[in-house]
Amino acid sequence: MEPKEKEYIESLFPAVKDISDADLREKVCQLWVQMWRGSNFEKIEDLSQWEPARDIVNWTNVEHTNEVTRCAATIGRLFEEMYPIKVNLDYIIAGAILHDVDKLALFDSKTGSHIDRGEKFSHANYGAHAALAIGLPQDVAHIIGSHSANYSSTEPRTVEAVIVRQADHVIAEGRNTALDCRVNFKLEK
Ligand SMILES: [Fe+2]
Ligand SMILES: [Fe+2]
Fold it and tell me: Is pLDDT above 70 for 125?
């Protein structure tokens, strides 16, 4: 990963800098760069939140990711205040920033449809495996892999994974309701 690429990822996802573990921070940036370089998107911010519906869903995957990350980190901090538990905030932030990273690698920037890889591998699961392949912790890969009600092949098994999954859902659906831009199809997460 070039220093410029890392700066680009940090500028898109400012919460990367809130990850205290330097190696984790590095790998989060690395996975975004890898997915981007393996895609045909010119810029990461060109990807809509749900690519097949890009004409209706008018916010980008970057905006969505940042909203989910803020929401999940806030819930994580609240959990530590409310319950006698230690929540791994690094994992929550890393998992939230990466939860939809694989969309870049599964969709075509021109048509908005799945590319061949997107037909053969499913959202969430592809991201989880890519995370494991570059050496991200298993618990971060699990957050990515279990975040989607529609696509995940496993349910969340950790408190961090539960928090990211619910933050994703409340942001995806809450934004539609709050901004009154409901669309006449079921938004896939
Ligand atoms: Fe999402
Ligand atoms: Fe997703």
Answer: yes
